Each structure stands twice: as C-alpha cells, then as structure tokens.
Amino acid sequence: MHILMTGGTGLIGRHLIPRLLLLGHQVSAVTRDVAAAREKLDARVALWSGLAQQQNLDGVDAVINLAGEPIADKRWTEQQKQLLCESRWQITERIASLINASAHPPRVLISGSATGYYGDTGDLVLTEEDSGQDEFTHQLCARWEQLALSAQSERTRVCLLRTGVVLASEGGALGKMKLPFRLGVGGPIGSGKQYLPWIHIDDMVNAILWLLDNDALSGPFNMVSPYAVRNEQFAATLGHVMHRPAFMRTPASAIRLMMGESAVLVLGGQHVLPKRLEAAGFGFRWYDLQEALQDVVGKPADKGAA
Questions:
Q1: Cα–Cα distances in Å, from 269 out to 4, 14, 55, 103?
Q2: 294: in domain
Q3: What is the pLDDT of residue 305?
Q4: Could you report the per-residue pLDDT of 27-51, keeping only the tens digit for each?
Q5: 57, 115, 129, 171: least surrounded by Cβ within 10 Å?
Q6: Burial class (CB in 10 A: 0-12, 13-18, 19+), 1
Q7: E strands within 79-193?
Q8: Is 139 exposed, middle or buried (0-12, 13-18, 19+ CB in 10 A)?
Q9: Which domain holds residue 105?
Q10: What is each CA distance from 283 to 203, 222, 264, 278, in whole angstroms?
Q11: What is the total count of domains within the chain?
Q12: Does 170 fall in a domain?
C-alpha cells in the first residue's frame, strides 16, 4: 500500500515507519521541515512539504494522521491552547477535505486522538461507548475526531486512536518521568490515586497495523493496555525497575503552581479499557506494567526508528 503519514517524526511515527517499510509498504510523510525530517527518517520515505499543493489523495491507499503539538510541554495559556487545537484540527480538516475530493480516495484514515477525550473521570471504568467530561481535553479531542469522521464514506473508513501514555525507550511522557527517579526524588503525584492509562510502544504499533489491515473496523479505539494502574502504582513500579526510591510525593498544589490548568494531565486520570480492540481479536503483548517498563527503561533506542 501507499501510506501517507503526518507526525512521522514523532514518538509513534518513528517506531511505526520502520515496520511499515519492513512489510513492504510505500511510505510518504508530510512535514513542515523537510531537511530535519530527512535526517530522522529512512531514506525510502518520500517527504511531502505540506498539503497545500495537493488537490486530492488519489494514489494514496491509507492515511495515518498523528500530527499535533505536544500537549504537556508548555503551560496552557489561551495562545498555547489555540496552538494545541489548530495543530490537530487544521491538518485533519485538510486531510478530510482531500479525501472527499478524491476520485479514488484512500481506503482508510487512521487518525489520532487521546484518552483525554474522556476528561478527568476518577474511578469510572470507561470504554469507547462512554462520552467525555466537558473540559478542554475533551473539547480538543472531540473536535479532532469529528473532523476526521467527516472523511468517512462507503469508500473510506475512519479509525480514531484514543491513545494513553505510550511507553518507549526514549521520548514521550516516560522520558520526562524518568529524570526525577534518576535524581532520587521520584514518587507519586498528588494523591497518587488517579488512574494512568498506558500502552507499550510495540502494542501501539501493532494495534495501528491491525486497524490498517482489518477492513471491517472503524470508529474509536482506546489504545491502552487492558490493565490501567493508579499513579502511585506506576511510580512504585518505575522506581523498582530503575532501582531508585519512589517515595517523594509531589503535592498537588506544587503541580498546579508549576503547570496551571494543564496540571489536570497528571493530577487527573481515566480508567480506560480497550474494549473494542479486544473484541476485534487484537492480542496485546504487554499486559504487565513491570515487564513493560523493564523492556523500555534502559533499552537502547531503536536505530531503525531514528
């Protein structure tokens, strides 16, 4: 297949592209910085400098849309919130428009979202059938998904990736979590009771490939391990795997002072289950958090994914 990707240089994209190439697919990546992307991606990946010049997506068999400004890197000022939204909404709207303008549209659009769709939902057990709390992360994801779904037709199915914390050897949320543990000041955040939905990068990539190949699947999918854990359990397990203490609890007040409104990303949580993936027959490799962390913590980065 000819697969068009956005977000190809991001955490998931860097691991997904080598697998797609290994399977014999032709991969094109949309990028704002061709020179930087060329340094990071396999030479076999064709680079598209944006989508402005495209009239349609004829000749593309599938689109995997993973683009978006990192949500936790900066405080949520009104300007930053607008950037977070526009970096997701604008390219998704453009992709949907190009698909709808195609005489022979891609057979599938796999488009990003996040477990933030559900908002801060405490101990409620959530599946894809549940609606979200009306807060910023839900508003961002709901509109993101709505724009992607506008590409859906009898000729194009749309799959939505409601992704949790992706565990990988480098980058992502885990990359930031490891530093305080290395310094001996790691531990639970706030009450520690909030659920943290997680998924190993291998399962994330395999699930995307599963959705790519199964023509009967569409709609939202929770991209998380079947076994969510509370923040305090995650901290204790990470400390154990890194052979570092994990008792330095960070007060919620300090997190709110540092992060402002975006503190909800770490003080809130969702107890999310991957009901639709499991019902479709997808088999997770990484169920156990300790085994998953042992696999990625200290593991050398995948050279083929750089």
A1: 32, 26, 41, 43
A2: no
A3: 39
A4: 999 999 999 999 999 999 999 999 9
A5: 129
A6: middle
A7: 108-114, 125-126, 157-163, 165-167
A8: middle
A9: 2-165+200-224
A10: 9, 14, 31, 7
A11: 1
A12: no
278 domain residue, yes or no = no
The angle, 0 to 180 degrees and rounded to 10, between the axes of the packed helices 78-100 and 136-149 is 10
Q: What is the rounded distance in angstroms from the CA atom of residue 248 to the CA atom of residue 258?
A: 17
Do 223 and 201 contact (CB within 8 A), yes or no? Answer: no
C-alpha atoms less than 13 angstroms from C-alpha of 13 in its C-beta half-sphere:
27
For residues 281 and 248, give the distance between their C-alpha atoms in angstroms, rounded to a whole number. 41
246, pLDDT greater than 50: yes
Amino acid at 202: D
83 found inside a domain = yes
Picking from 117, 119, 105, 115, the residue whose alpha carbon sits closest to that of residue 150 is: 105
CATH number at residue 213: 3.40.50.720
Check if the beta carbon of residue 196 is closer than 8 Å to that of residue 234. yes
Report strand pairing: 157-163 vs 108-114: parallel
Q: What is the pLDDT of residue 144?
A: 98
DSSP tag of 125: E
**Tokens matching residue 46:** 């064709």
pLDDT at 303: 41
Which helix (H) or strand (E) covers residue 298, if one does? none
pLDDT, tens only, 192-211: 999 999 999 999 999 999 99
Q: How far apart are CA 183 and CA 253, in angstroms?
A: 21
The pLDDT value recorded for residue 258 is 87
